[in-house]
Design a protein that fits this description.
The complex is a heterodimer of chains A (611) and B (351). By secondary structure, chain A is α/β, with parallel strands linked by helices. Among the domains of chain A are: 166 residues, FAD/NAD(P)-binding domain, CATH 3.50.50; 145 residues, FAD/NAD(P)-binding domain (3-Layer(bba) Sandwich), CATH 3.50.50. Chain A is built from 22 helices and 24 strands. A five-stranded parallel β-sheet of chain A has the order 3-2-1-4-16, with helices on one face. A five-stranded parallel β-sheet of chain A has the order 6-14-7-8-9. In chain A, strands 10, 11, 12 and 13 form a four-stranded antiparallel β-sheet that branches. In chain A, strand 10 and strand 11 form a beta hairpin. Chain B has a single domain, classed as 3-Layer(aba) Sandwich (Rossmann fold), CATH 3.40.50.970. Chain B is built from twelve helices and 13 strands. At the A-B interface, helix 20 of A face helix 1 and helix 8 of B.
Chain lengths: 611, 351
Amino acid sequence: MQRTDTANPAWFHKVVDCQWACPAHTPVPEYIRLIAQGRYDDAYMINWASNVFPGVLGRTCDRPCEPACRRGRVEENNGAHPEPVAICRLKRVAADMKGAVKSRMPAVAAKNGKRVACVGAGPASLTVARDLAPLGYDVTVFDGEARAGGFIRSQIPRFRLPESVIDEETGYILDLGVTFKSGQRIDSMKALLAENYDAVFVGCGAPRGRDLDVPGRKEAAANIHIGIDWLASVSFGHITSIGKRVIVLGGGNTAMDCCRSSKRLGGADVKVIVRSGFEEMKASPWEKEDAMHEGIPIINYHVPKTFVHENGKLTGMTFEIVRAEYDAKGRRSLVPTGEPDAFFPCDDVLVAVGQENAFPWIERDCGIEFDQWGLPKLGAETHQSTVAKVFFGGDAAFGPKNIITAVAHGHEAAVSIDRFLHGEDVRQRPAPMTNLVSQKMGIHEWSYDNDTSNDARFKVPWAKAEMALASIKVEVELGFDAATAFKEAERCLNCDVQTVFTESACIECDACVDICPTDCLTITKNGDETDLRTRLTAPSRHLEQGLYVSGELKTGRIMAKDEDVCLHCGLCAERCPTGAWDMQKFRLDTTKAGSACRNGAQVKVREEVAA
Amino acid sequence: MTWITKPKLHHPTLTKNKVGYTRRDYEGRISTLCAGCGHDSISAAIIQACWELDIQPHRVAKLSGIGCSSKTPDYFLGASHGFNTVHGRMPSVLTGANLANRDLLYLGVSGDGDSASIGLGQFANAMRRGVRMAYIVENNGVYGLTKGQFSATADRGSKSKKGVVNSDSPVDLVGLALQLGATYVARSFSGDKEQLVPLIKGAMEHGGAAFIDVISPCVTFNNHAGSTKSYDYVREHNDAVSRIDFITSRDEITTSYAPGELVEVPQHDGTTLRLRKLHQEYDPTDRLAAMTYMHKQQARGEIVTGLLYVDPLATDLHTALNTSEHALNSFNAAQLCPGSKALEKINAALR
């Protein structure tokens, strides 16, 4: 293999699995260390710069970081239940325990004369506003609702996310001199463009809940509700009760929010009924667990057939029972089992079978082109539409995803807008800012705690079930206390503290190979990657995890490190007599809008990252 | 030294051997030696060898004297019996332990100071008596604990870190072991585990006195230009006479060899040492030829490594003394105290 090019920012970035997996590339280990040190304000601000809504996301994030977390792989065969670090819940700790951070918010520069309109006040638009307003842009955010937040406010039930957290975190952004036009739903793109904004950002989400067109739908309409609309009505207090017996259709996170909300609004017999198998449900595993914990059964392999009603009054639903069959290509089809249809009596049905984009307010002749799926044609990285000054982000851009993806879009779109309004090519993207610094403080002393914790993942305490179910406003999860947060933070392996190898210093004494607790290191003859992976000290199990390969050593062999289950304990560096191994902290920050993202600030274009 | 303990977390694929232990179970405490010390590699090789041999850790006794090398038994086989003896006296204590309990596997760990200076007489007598043991000398040619003076195995003409040239002749432990009747004699290098691990396995399964001289560079005091025990020097002058495979009865023999390339040495316990000769003319069962070849190569500044001599029919001290077949701790009161009649008989025989 070729000597690993560690100058490519992607190399060390990829080793930090959590940060690599995070759409907004939040420097996770860095803020977890700060939490362990009790520096909650600093931890919060690192989050705030990357993901804008630490308090919201610390409760509701889809947390792609956690399945990626190295700790989960490391604990395999080392304990009963391998679990990643509770990254999301630690983020909440930073938000819960911080002091006043208002003074640390960015100063707002003098107005630069450019006007930017943001459609919708959801996470994508607010991120754009957050990035552009301090630079002097005159940002106006439009939203049909009275208060900012978008789906964060309308879709996520209060028992998961208290309103005060939304108010606080949307407030930090609106206080940066952003004009918020509440109660103003934009209903014509042409009219908006006529107002001569220098740039327009569309962050209006995917606001249309999918319906279920089966017999009885029209007749029994009074007791059949579209999930996302119903959640919004609950959120704004328009709906305060539901029937005793409730069926929730759908297997996503919206369905989980619907069933748990129903349980709090008078539903005594609430069940989730889903077409697919339990495992294939789109809802995050922990959201399914939370629903079941509250006594809500999830019934799978039932396909809705009819709404049963008596003179327009819903009485129940029938379902066809199916099983999954997979063809040679692994594609699934649901085949009826031939069992008689199942009937479930109910008073209300909540339909949460997906949501879709809808842009009825964008005139199709205004220049913005749409693809066959009704989504705007955009540059994948630039978020620029076919009208140069119109950009899309969040669910409105590439279909429904999640909050953290919307935030990531917001950052990218803000970079595009900033470059666009400086007359620069938006397709040229700025490289991330990186830093690599030795953590050596003395002989065998490091600036981070390199002693690996053996603790299993700590559970977040919950409010008592009878209290939690009594009101929709009582938050269920209570968050870690400081002592537990410290212990959970210590489970983090500090993957950003990289093992950096200098082959010219190596004397091939084997000390690092001998000491490595997880057998990551091998000194051997070079070969191509497939061959090399068969000759490692321990079997290579995850091919997507990099092999860090040195140049030729004195004996003509090479040093190879399988990054897969490295504990970042630093023992290789401690046992190295010549300092060939060193522990160096890698910090990567994506470049945000501002002078750093513009031409001249850096010569290098963002390098293509090897997946 | 490292302040933290080695994390318990191990590679997910770490496997157990026949007696139910992983390689990590054969480790000891974390080393306090200098980073990069050859001795740590030897410890790792011992751990690997014991794991591969399916040895139960509590069936091993590890004994050592004084010195950097003699500290190492703390760093491997944490669940075995250990005895850290007076300087140079490991062979006597081991001989005593072996006579009392012949059921244990004996591992003697010593250094060039411990065995070639203060303990030279002890070393010589353990070898000539044929005490069944694996005697490993971790040989770095300097006194590391007292800041790097030449030890008795330092080659004449080699340079100290300060630039002083050694004027004394070296004690050749391998030569002595061959001369004094050791029945398994090898030399190896801490930086070559592929060679060292099978040699240790062979020594631990050997039926008599097995001696391995392991050149183990001292990174702090003897790893410079002018040293003959540095990583670079040993790598440049390493003349391996053979590679050994240690074959237990369950292993399948798959590789084929050219005629004359292979020597098979059956061991007393049914295992086989398979020597792949790297020199056609070298005969590892000919003690005299081994000594001659070694001296010749030594004069040319080459370091002969590999299994230099093995006596497949080796016997040990117990056979010579015709001792009891069982460990003394297995005797019951009646056996230990046969009564007054037996005493009278003995007394009568002495009148």
